[in-house]
Amino acid sequence: xxxxxxxxxxxxxxxxxxxxxxxxxxxxxxxxxxxxxxxxxxxxxxxxxxxxxxxxxxxxxxxxxxxxxxxxxxxxxxxxxxxxxxxxxxxxxxxxxxxxxxxxxxxxxxxxxxxxxxxxxxxxxxxxxxxxxxxxxxxxxxxxxxxxxxxxxxxxxxxxxxxxxxxxxxxxxxxxxxxxxx
Length: 182
Fold this sequence. Notes:
The protein is mostly beta strands. The protein has two domains: 6-93, RimM (Elongation Factor Tu (Ef-tu), domain 3); 107-166, Roll (SH3 type barrels). It is built from one helix and 14 strands; from the N terminus they run βββββββαβββββββ. The strands form three sheets. Strands 1, 2, 3, 6, 7 and 8 form a six-stranded antiparallel sheet that branches. The chain has a six-stranded mixed sheet with strand order 12-11-10-9-14-13, with no helix packed on it. Residues 1-9 have low confidence and may be disordered.
């Protein structure tokens, strides 16, 4: 499955600011775009609520992140205050996708149905906690479902039909409690 930015209300999170780098306002930036340096191509980046906007002045690749300067951020103290801030762009600023490609943002809110056509709920979010993508489904009632976002569990993403098809796993390792022998 393609990984990609995660959406909030048609805003797509494309980066997260990390710790300062040096004393002149540079900072680490984790880009969630396919080409990390492309994060600067989408125009101003905003906070989730849209209250603050930032422009990337310079960017260079580092080991697993970028080192950037933002216009108006000139000191280490300024950079410290931005640590952890997520940066967003409107969905329509992102490049179009190819056939069989999509942004995670395109899935949020879509109905999720089983391979037999039974409704499961709606896609709430796509998460990645480090071991691969997880799709979160909100059923009409009951707790949300967190499922691996793999081809086996999510065999079809049909944007034209506006739905995600889920093959519910039969058993997940660790689901069955260990019972001591009597």
